[in-house]
């Protein structure tokens, strides 16, 4: 079974600085999606960034980028120029593309604090 | 509305009671998911639907939990004989189609407290 591990329960970053959140996963599959979702205190989760495993190029969305290391099964999120609005829980998630099940498996999350 | 809507936003009940949680997905989204999120944890998969049918219900913890989606739109998660351990935030999410590019759109959740 697939698992997703986030080993950093909490991280802090100074406003305007850069922070990297870690995620590792375990799977025997070769084709899948990886995601980072953000959950602000209001509770509604929103997608930050998505990576397709067959694409070697790392995904980028404005200030958010990933470092996808398929062989190492690592998927870290880099937030550049951190803003106060980035403070939230961040969840890494996995979803198979080929196994016939489309459930998303989430990690336990990392709480990001942004210091003014 | 434009987003996923969940009602009630908060529900307090007594142990042993029956509760229903409702989810209105984004119009036209065929895939609908239920997750449970306990304090300080990540979302835990319960069930997902493609259209009216439950495509994967392997995450339902026991037979006290049941979910339906009779017309392929609104879904109801039902919990019988509630226990204190059922207290959590229940999240609903929808996506345009099951095997699509993967973005889930979440509601704000229903916080269930069992006394």
Task: Walk me through the structure.
The complex is a heterodimer of chains A (116) and B (115). Chain A is mainly beta. Chain A has no helices and 12 strands. Helix content of chain B is 0%, strand content 48%. Chain B has strands at residues 5-7, 10-13, 19-24, 31-37, 44-50, 53-56, 65-68, 75-79, 88-95, 105-106, 110-114. Chain B is an all-beta fold. The relative contact order of chain B is 0.33.
Architecture blueprint of SSEs:
The complex is a heterodimer of chains A (about 120) and B (about 120).
Chain A: E1 3-5, E2 10-14, E3 19-21, E4 24-26, E5 32-39, E6 46-52, E7 60-61, E8 64-69, E9 74-79, E10 88-96, E11 104-106, E12 110-115
Parallel strand pairs in A: 2-12
Antiparallel strand pairs in A: 1-4, 3-9, 5-6, 5-10, 7-8, 8-9, 10-11, 10-12
Chain B: E1 5-7, E2 10-13, E3 19-24, E4 31-37, E5 44-50, E6 53-56, E7 65-68, E8 75-79, E9 88-95, E10 105-106, E11 110-114
Parallel strand pairs in B: 2-11
Antiparallel strand pairs in B: 1-3, 3-8, 4-5, 4-9, 5-6, 7-8, 9-10, 9-11
């Amino acid at each position: 079974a697939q698992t997703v591990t986030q080993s950093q329960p909490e991280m802090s970053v100074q406003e305007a600085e850069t922070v990297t959140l870690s995620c590792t996963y375990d799977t025997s599959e070769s084709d899948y999606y990886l995601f980072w979702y953000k959950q602000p205190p209001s509770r509604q989760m929103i997608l930050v960034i998505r990576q397709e495993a067959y694409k070697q190029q790392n995904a980028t969305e404005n200030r958010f980028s990933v470092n996808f290391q398929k062989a190492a099964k690592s998927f870290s999120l880099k937030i550049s120029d951190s803003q106060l609005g980035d403070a939230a829980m961040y969840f890494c998630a996995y979803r198979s593309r080929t196994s016939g099940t489309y459930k998303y498996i989430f990690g336990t999350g990392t709480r990001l604090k942004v210091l003014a | 509305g434009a987003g996923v809507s969940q009602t009630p936003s908060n529900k307090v009940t007594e142990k042993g009671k029956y509760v229903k949680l409702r989810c209105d997905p984004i119009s036209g989204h065929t895939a609908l998911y239920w997750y449970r999120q306990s304090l300080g944890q990540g979302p835990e998969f319960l069930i997902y639907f493609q259209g009216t049918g439950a495509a994967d219900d392997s995450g339902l913890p026991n037979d006290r939990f049941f979910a339906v989606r009779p017309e392929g739109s609104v879904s109801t998660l039902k919990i019988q004989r509630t226990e204190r351990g059922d207290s959590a935030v229940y999240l609903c999410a929808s996506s345009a189609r099951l095997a699509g590019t993967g973005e889930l759109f979440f509601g704000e959740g229903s916080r269930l407290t069992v006394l």
